[in-house]
Amino acid sequence: MAGMGGLNAAEQRELQGRMEQKQMKDFMNMYSNLVQRCFNDCVTDFTTKSLLGKEEGCVMRCVDKFLKSSERLGERFQEQNAQMAAQGGMNTGR
Amino acid sequence: MSFLFGGGRPQPSSAEKIAAAEAEIEMVSNMFNQLVDTCTKKCIPNQYREADLNKGESVCLDRCVAKFFEVNVKVSEKMQGEAQQRQGGAMGGGGGSMFG
Question: N or C: which end of chain A has fewer CB within 10 A?
């Protein structure tokens, strides 16, 4: 990462700490998005207080699917990112 | 991405360097979150009949990422082009590169 090269050890530690905080925050955001999405899409019946079997199954599949797609998107994202870095960004040669 | 333009500028302080690195990481991270949001909305229908991604969804996700990046590049180039035009060809690099 471009920024890391210019930082000394103490600065890198500081950056590392902030990145960890950010990761926590991102994880919490993802979690609440997931709950909202799966609830919206799967839970439609309010004639009873507890989840119907089909609603519960739907939620489980929703979570699985979402996590798998996040993973796949992460992989593709890294590939594309690496490709762009290899091409030297967009400003060179203009 | 260089955040030290030209010469004659005082060395950035520790806090500035950390802030700049953090900003860059945050930009990439935001882009990824947007990508996840958009591509799951576009590619994953909300029936959830099974827990695994089927072939169609997987291919859709792959293509979505590629197109997202391409759009990113094109928008960035166009905006830099317009900025350059407005500045009459003076250093239009102020837009900065995304990943360089």
Answer: C
Closest-approach residue (CA) in chain B for A88: B100
- Flag the least confident range among A66-70, A75-79, A88-92: A88-92
Q: Is B57 an 8 Å CB contact of chain A?
A: yes
pTM over 0.80, yes/no: no
Within 13 Å of residue B20, how many CA atoms lie on the same side as its CB? 18
ipTM tops the 0.90 cut: no
Nearest to A84 by CA among B65, B85, B88: B65
CA–CA distance, A60 with B50 (Å, rounded to integer)? 9
Residue of A nearest to B80 (CA): A91
